[in-house]
Specification:
16 helices; MATE_MdtK
């Protein structure tokens, strides 16, 4: 694993390797989330109802992403451990099967979701404007689901072999293209200019997204086919399914999938509770979700970098180095979230005002940011130490932590605050912090028990 782009992660400074892996991933994901923030800013210029519609669809869309999470998490341990052992053929086979199997699953999931989208919308809103915004944004996103899944796969493969630079470049190109296309497709006249646009509204926002995802996938796949990278595939093997590997792609990440499913169901239940406070509350939560996701990107980058290093260390039977990597990732993640929390606490009104001008929405969003975002400090600890689970393929602790934090702690508290005591919405925000603390305790306990140290895939 020599060379500038694919490092030997089993040697040298752990901190340096972690940041050389996590830094490009952070930057790439932050560009992606910056696009999401810009996207929400443009949608906010249409109306609060448009924001509410996109928020409702995005909440439901994550149910489909559970499948991506299951297969993607499994692929991290399969690819990184195979690469750590020096088995190039199995590394390539795992990459090929992830591409083929995940694309097939995406096709099936997209067909099913397209049929149930409209009935599901009726559960959240009876406002025809909100529903139409969700449908306009949603159907085209569903249609391009296989491309989105495949794009994730190629980027993950590069990171698993120690090359975080190419995914970063690809994601930055995608985000910039998205930002450029958004106002062109959305508005009759691009705001602040006299340039004519297509005036497609929220459909234009979704169209810009799928075009950017498609371009990023084509660039990534061209890198792979060039045969000049550590990610190598045999195209003819893409047409065959390998039952042994496909079974592992489903089973290894299944606890993670259930965890994400349960977390997303919590999001749906939470959204249902929040709808009782009105459309402004839903719009505030939609903006908040984008902001939380943006703030979360450094943690995601650290976790992906740490999981890759842990996976390779375990493949090489170097448990001590795997532990040290997780510890550093946890410390750095928590410190980064302290910085983010300071900004959120001091400037919540200005931050909310970037996305929407309606005072009633901003008023709801200010306490939301001040309460929920500091909870990400605990998430930094969870993601750092939790990287040993995705790296090893032992993902059950994620599931247990999610059940404990979200279903045993958060939802019961939310039910009491909203339906029993009829408390203001600020009490809903406090349930997120309580859940974060419970999850942190479960993850730390599972890490110290140490079952992950003996798990191999």
């Amino acid at each position: 694993m020599k060379g500038k782009e694919s490092r030997n992660l089993l040697k040298g400074s752990i901190s340096k390797n972690l940041f050389l892996m996590a830094g490009p991933t952070m930057l790439g994901f932050m560009f992606q989330m910056f696009y999401d923030l810009v996207d929400m800013m443009w949608i906010g210029k249409i109306s609060a109802k448009a924001v509410a519609g996109v928020t409702i669809f995005s909440t439901m869309f994550w149910m489909v992403n559970v499948l991506n999470e299951i297969i993607g998490t499994s692929s991290i341990s399969l690819i990184s451990q195979s690469y750590g052992k020096g088995d190039q053929d199995r590394t390539s086979l795992c990459i090929e099967q992830t591409l083929t199997f995940k694309a097939l699953v995406a096709v099936i999931a997209g067909i099913i979701f397209s049929f149930i989208l409209r009935p599901l919308l009726g559960f959240f809103t009876h406002d025809t404007v909100v529903s139409q915004a969700a449908l306009s944004y949603g159907y085209i996103r569903i249609f391009f689901l296989p491309i989105m899944f495949s794009s994730y796969t190629v980027n993950t493969a590069f990171r698993c072999v120690g090359d975080a630079r190419k995914p970063m470049i690809i994601m930055i190109i995608s985000a910039i293209l998205n930002i450029i296309l958004d106002p062109i497709f959305m508005f009759d006249v691009i705001p602040g200019t006299s340039i004519q646009g297509f005036g497609l509204g929220v459909f234009g926002a979704a169209l810009a997204t799928v075009i950017s995802i498609t371009v990023s996938f084509l660039i990534a796949f061209a890198f792979v086919l060039s045969n000049k990278t550590k990610v190598k595939i045999k195209v003819k093997r893409l047409l065959k399914l390998n039952f042994q590997i496909d079974k592992k792609l489903i089973t290894i990440g299944l606890p993670n999938g259930f965890e994400v499913l349960l977390r997303n169901l919590v999001g749906i239940v939470t959204l249902k509770f929040i709808t009782s406070y009105g459309t402004d509350a839903v719009a505030a939560m939609g903006i908040g979700n984008r902001l939380f996701s943006f703030a979360f990107m450094p943690l995601l980058g650290l976790t992906m970098g740490s999981s890759t290093i842990v996976g390779q260390c375990l493949g090489a039977e170097n448990i001590k180095r795997a532990k040290a990597t997780a510890r550093y990732a946890s410390i750095y993640g928590a410190l980064l979230m302290v910085v983010v929390s300071v900004f959120a606490f001091i400037f919540p009104e200005r931050i909310m005002g970037i996305f929407i001008s309606e005072p009633s929405v901003i008023e709801i969003g200010i306490p939301m940011m001040r309460i929920i975002i500091p909870g990400l400090i605990m998430a930094g600890v969870v993601m750092g130490y939790g990287s040993v689970f995705s790296g090893s393929g032992y993902n059950t602790p994620y599931l247990i932590s999610s059940i404990t934090g979200r279903w045993i702690v958060q939802i019961p508290l939310m039910f009491l605050f909203v339906n029993v005591f009829n408390l203001p919405i600020i009490w809903v925000w406090t349930t997120f912090v309580a859940a974060d603390f419970a999850e942190m305790m479960v993850i730390l306990t599972a890490y110290n028990i140490g079952k992950w140290e003996r798990r191999r895939v």
